[in-house]
Write a structure and sequence with these properties.
By secondary structure, this protein is of the alpha+beta class. It folds into 2 domains: 3-221 and 335-420, Aminopeptidase; 223-333, Alpha-Beta Plaits (2-Layer Sandwich), CATH 3.30.70.360. The protein contains 10 helices and 17 strands. The strands form 4 sheets. The chain has an 8-stranded mixed beta sheet with strand order 1-2-8-3-9-16-10-15, covered by helices on one side. It has a 4-stranded antiparallel beta sheet with strand order 12-13-11-14, covered by helices on one side. A 3-stranded antiparallel beta sheet has the order 4-7-17. The longest helix is centred in the first third of the chain and has 20 residues, at 3-22.
């Protein structure tokens, strides 16, 4: 076996094995929780990761009071000019889908056909609906069993980073500078960077492992705000309500109906198109709130969209005498390209690492956000690398063991390239 083949075999085995264990932890985050992390299950896995890193010889692996795990792979070169780089992944999974009692299924030697998930036969991973499967024939596919998500978002990234640490520690002949590792909670609910200590992390740049199919490199994201529109009405006994009741639920329903139906929604946009997405409704006759995600790749256009929906809300209230409306706008994150375009080397070396691993970089915008979106604006330039995830937040979520292997290869390659480039 060649040295390249040997490396690939070792990395693949470690990443898959770790991933199959990590997905069995229930780490769903909870946006209604006031704690940090938002759920105790995340801490269970984070503590396990500290123990695993220490067992690999990473002596400074530790978890802080907020649940962040950080660790350092010691450099193998003594050149002071080699910058510290980092790799980051989040342990939580989406609260939008069941994440307890995950049963991962390993489908070896995938033959290109449909995969019926046994715990719910109505859930079928169809090749015709998942064109990325065509490139996986002969590979090992991992799915859940049909009742839950799988959790590759982002436990694949976690497994790949730990596997890369294991490989680097076992191969001190690989030249690299200091490598920082971080595992974070609550990314799925937008809080993953809330207490991230950039100065303590101490890296010149970092890469999140939280992307899709092999070769993907993402360095621009949506800019994002969340708008809460609260319609006020008047409640009274429904038997004596004529001429008095103002039903805020009806007012809110009218508002939602007037939002664009054929454009400017997640269902009708792609690429660089932004959207308005009503995603939560808290109904009551007296007051009903509608929460709306506002997304655009151009930050200035967020205000245009917000002005637009506020005008719709005012028009609706005008048509419902006695009703009133209140607005609250919360900034979530901004397009990380605004920062990363000032650090072209961070992107260029990622391209080189992907090509070095035998792939051509696939560069596309993230129609969402990652921890890297906020971390970049906090002083840590952080683009996103592929982790092999497909069908995020779904019972049809799947990943390829070979793609995970490639992600580990890119991590190791980046460590070498940053040392050689100095």
């Amino acid at each position: 076996m060649t040295s390249a083949g040997k490396k690939q075999s070792q990395i693949q085995t470690s990443a898959l094995r770790r991933f199959l264990k990590y997905v069995t932890y229930d780490t769903r985050s909870d946006e209604h929780s006031s704690t940090f992390p938002s759920t105790p299950g995340q801490l269970v896995l984070l503590r396990e990761l500290v123990a695993e890193l220490q067992a690999l010889g990473v002596r400074d692996a530790a978890m802080d009071d907020h649940g962040y795990v950080m660790a350092t792979v010691a450099p193998t070169v003594g050149r002071d000019r080699v910058p510290v780089i980092g790799f980051i992944a989040h342990v939580d999974t989406s609260p939008e889908m069941p994440g307890h009692d995950v049963r991962p299924l390993v489908h070896e030697h995938y033959d290109g056909g449909d995969l019926a998930l046994p715990d719910d036969r109505s859930v079928v991973l169809r090749a015709s609906e998942n064109p990325a499967l065509a490139a996986q024939i002969g590979n090992t596919i991992v799915t859940a069993s049909g009742l839950t998500l799988l959790g590759s978002d982002d436990k694949a990234g976690v497994a790949e980073i730990v596997a890369a640490v294991e490989y680097l520690v076992a191969h001190p002949e690989i030249e690299h500078g200091p490598v920082r590792i971080a595992f974070t909670p609550d990314e799925e609910i937008g809080r993953g960077a809330n207490h991230f200590d950039v100065s303590r992390f101490g890296a010149a740049c970092a890469y999140t492992l939280d992307g899709g199919g092999r070769g993907e490199l993402e360095f621009e994201s949506f800019s994002a705000d969340a708008v809460t529109i609260t319609f006020k009405g008047f409640n009274t006994h429904p038997g004596y309500a004529k001429g008095r009741m103002v039903n805020a639920i009806r007012v809110a329903a009218d508002f939602v109906t007037r939002l664009p139906q054929d454009t400017m929604s997640p269902e009708t946009t792609e690429g660089y198109e932004g959207y308005l997405h009503p995603y939560q409704l808290h109904p009551a006759v007296d007051a009903t709130s509608v929460k709306i995600l506002v997304r655009d790749f151009v930050t200035a256009k967020l205000k245009e969209k917000e002005d637009y929906i506020q005008q719709i809300a005012r028009d609706v209230v005008r048509d419902h005498p006695g009703a009133s409306v209140e607005f609250a706008i919360a900034e979530q994150y901004r397009n990380m390209r605004e920062v990363l375009e000032q650090h072209p080397r961070v992107i260029d070396l990622a391209r080189q690492a992907i090509r070095r691993a035998g792939m051509e970089p696939i560069e596309r915008p993230i129609r969402g956000g990652t921890d890297g979106s906020r971390l970049s604006f906090m002083g840590l330039p952080t683009p996103n690398l592929f982790a092999g995830e497909h069908n995020f937040h779904s019972r049809l979520e799947w990943i390829s063991a070979e793609d995970m292997d490639k992600a580990v290869e890119v991590i190791v390659g980046l460590c070498e390239l940053w040392a050689r480039d100095c």
